[in-house]
Amino acid sequence: MAPSPDPVLRASGLHKTYRGGMLSRGGAVRAVAGVDLELRAGETLGIVGESGCGKSTLARMLVGLERPDQGEVTFRGRPFFTRGGVPRDIRRRVQMVFQDPLTSLNPRMTVHDIVAEPLRVHRLSPNARAMRERVGELLTLVGLSPDRMGRFPYEFSGGQRQRIGIARALATEPDVIVCDEPVSALDMSVQAQVVNLFAELQRELGVALVFIAHDLAVVRHVSHRVGVMYLGRLAELGPAAEVYGAPAHPYTMALLSAAPVPKPGLRGRSRIMLAGDPPSPVAPPPGCRFHTRCWKATDRCGEVEPALEAVGEHFAACHYATR
Amino acid sequence: MSEPPVLEIRDLRVTFTAHGREIPAVRGVDLTIERGQTLALLGESGSGKSVTAKAVMGLLDQPNADVRCATARLGGRDLLAMSEEERRALRGSEMTLVFQDALSALNPVLSIGHQIGELYRVHRGLSRKEARARSIEMLSLVGIPAADKRIDDYPHQFSGGMRQRILVAMAVALEPDLIIADEPTTALDVTVQAQILELIDRLRRELGTAVLLITHDLGVAAEVSDRVAVMYAGRIVESGEVAELYERPGHPYTEALLAAIPDLDSPASSLRAIPGAPPNPASVPPGCSFAPRCERASELCTTTRPALLEIGSGRYAACHHSEEMLDGALA
């Protein structure tokens, strides 16, 4: 199904700062510092970035698990964060799949109870029998045998557990599923199964996905559009083929260049080697956040923060974006 | 070659006992690494690759682990004939280990200078002052800025990439014959991973050290290794020179893995997923361990385990169908 143009989910000016407790002397962590994005119905928006870039915090705000300090998330034009918390019907329409299937599934609940919990919470099944049937349907949908619904999470392999997490997210017939590193805890021979499952579900159910991962190739594979995050901000955003094929932001170039490629023949290629580590989100550098590691940086980059501006078909936040 | 290989392991077997059950984690592994060479041991979790590394280092002396080996030689010296004391002296000087998680591998209450210096004091008998000077040299070698100022810092004061550099510095400090790097970059970000891999490769070239790189990442193995050995369910199922192995895999598992990872340059619509999951080490199927997930599996595969046989110059595969695979690739 081709993505339609109207957004289901829109985030504008999201900021989230975690203030430390008594023991933290470092100060506040600026996890997300001004992110705008739109998710269209039926599309997959991939978010890539290194650890500490705020991609998980962004995910949690997009499902309403975390309240932004500034900015707003809207679902089909309706604000998420009202005085009474996130409205229940919005919660039902926006679901989440977590990274580690073992810690995100209650070990003392059976698979039936885990998948039925959202049905119960949102009163989606009139009686126990209907609920059981629906759980069976959901398990079949994700490729698990309904006979096993009486079992516990530890009796399943990593890939199967992730399927249980996906079945639980699908239970409420959501329009949006936000997936935070859904395949990175899985063995490489199993990753492809889950990646294919997401693609299949999207084709069949038309659900929109936000797919957050650090693996560039996986994100490219599943996404229609891709956003690249660096230290709490989007460095680049656009159609996957554009962002990967003609990256405009130096960070995207470096990231793509640094990714190990399973082709020994390409070993001698020239690569962009960034110096150092990403700076700490406690004290992000002034101006462009990437200027401390950027080979294109000038004095202006250390002073003026570049805005996310259109570069051809996509957007990049760089004064010297390759056009 | 007149020089003996740096590492020669024949028929390594490791069996753990847990809850009265025997769990064979490594079931007959052969490894040979020449001087200055990098061998990547590629496998998924539970394939026995880390256990192999620990067994080679002699770090599995625990009551519930049974380690057996037909031959174990390091640079021509017989590891099996050595006393525990002699092996201990080799660890850290002749063969060293770089762990995955640098934060838990370093002692949090000792300064970096103390921990690197300890190597020189214990193994080389240097004085504190000399050891400190050498430690600063090592830190600069691995690219830690202002090494003379940071030598008294503690592990928590360094970033993840810097800590991994410190581990690499400790591993190469005494110019060992062999470095075993167990997922050295798995905990790191892509841009930092590239730096560390480059560093290990540079030190290998400059110091002529042999490297055993344990990884689950096909990309990482392709970037730095000379030879690759693919492990599945406690055994090596295929080994060979890196370019050959990636271009014309001789084992269906290798072939399937390569088809299951997305290609950055040409996104296909659907990945060729491998059905099922890796077997539990406690109950590996009879015959070929990969047979239940293999699309080429025949009746023979479920009953008779294929031996690791030479299928070309320097190439080995344990599969009844290797020949038809390679013929098919050529045709």
Automatic annotation (TrEMBL), chain A:
Domain of life assignment: Bacteria
Cross-referenced PANTHER family: D,D-DIPEPTIDE TRANSPORT ATP-BINDING PROTEIN DDPF-RELATED, TRANSPORT ATP-BINDING PROTEIN
Protein name as annotated: ATP-binding cassette domain-containing protein
Keyword Zinc (UniProt): no
Similarity comment: Belongs to the ABC transporter superfamily.
Signal peptide: none
Classification lineage: Bacteria, Bacillati, Actinomycetota, Actinomycetes, Streptosporangiales
PROSITE patterns: ABC_TRANSPORTER_1, ABC_TRANSPORTER_2
One of the protein's GO biological processes: peptide transport
InterPro entries xref list: AAA+_ATPase, ABC_transp_ATP-bind, ABC_transporter-like_ATP-bd, ABC_transporter-like_CS, Oligopep_ABC_C, P-loop_NTPase
Keyword terms of this UniProt record: ATP-binding, Nucleotide-binding, Transport
SUPFAM superfamilies according to UniProt: P-loop containing nucleoside triphosphate hydrolases
Keyword Ligase (UniProt): no
GO MF assignments: ATP binding; ATP hydrolysis activity
